[in-house]
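dumping this here before i forget
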Amino acid sequence: MKKLALTVSAAVALIAGASQAAMPAYPDNPDVIWKGNFEEGASSLSGNCNWGDNGWCGEQNVRAQQIQIVDDPAFEGHHAVRFEVKYGDVFRSYSDERSLLSPPPQMWEDEGSERWYRFQVMFPQDWVGSYPKWDELGTPASRNNAGSIVEWHHDANGAVESGSAPLYIRGGDQFIEMCLVDQATSACRETLQLAPLNRGHWQDIVIHAKWSSDPSVGYLEIWIDGVNVLPKHMGSNKYPGMKNYLLTGLYRNGHIGDPNLLFPDGTHVYGTDGTPGVAYVDGFIAGKTRDSVLPPAPATSGGSSTPPASGSASPSGSPEPTTNGGTPVSTAGVGFPQGGCSSTGFQSAWLALPLFGLFALRRRRSAA
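structure:
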């Protein structure tokens, strides 16, 4: 297929009259570091391991069904990726169950590097965000998260890694969450509820990160569906003397789905199917600037882009974000070897900040 720079009118025509997704018109920006948007099909999943390559370098899976290119649902272009994990999907000698992709070496982050990232995730309608904690089955409130979808792991320049990664983004029962890990305990020092988890719909995520082990230097900013859900949040997001490297896919505690686990009354915790979990990812791009990861905003007839009115849906059509108590707001405010994370101390009223900008033309297909 020829790559054409779509005008707004041509893109609108595609949305109105064509069955395939509109291709976002990303500019030829020298600040783009990498694209991992699956548009090359199966060849985009592995083997792209040279500095400067687009696509993904390696797969961590033990079954072919765990990582698959799909064309429906897709957020942009023609393809997305479907991740599946179930009991027993343990790769090599690593801990826990996983279906993961890793990118080429330009996506490994050093101390002080500043990056912008954009990607989309979809959790299907039957997504279960947590399961009984395997070693506390007599305490119903003790739960394991169902799996991270994006993480930045640690690597001591090729040395053996131990403990949990510094940062996980995951799908909970009600929210898209972020876990920032304490290196000494491998447990979350902070668990942040970023936005309501909108099952069966693509959610568009933009992250601005400065990677540092110094809490006075490192920070994160996050937008979901065009809404600034995490204003600049200072804190360490990297371990001293180590690099961070990106992983995407499903990663969860190795006891989830174990058919031999029993509740105290002798009943089985799980069935015999391994308790499969499924999620979708699309559109990965990373760059040095905000503009390098965002396609041009659609223009109005007068030539300027217009943010949605206060109280309207976000640019992607997702519901207006709410606080934990359910009050609407106009701008809101992962493995897990230890079996989950506990929130410690991050409670802040979200500040009213300008919307991040409008996102590209895209289709929104629902997953069954």
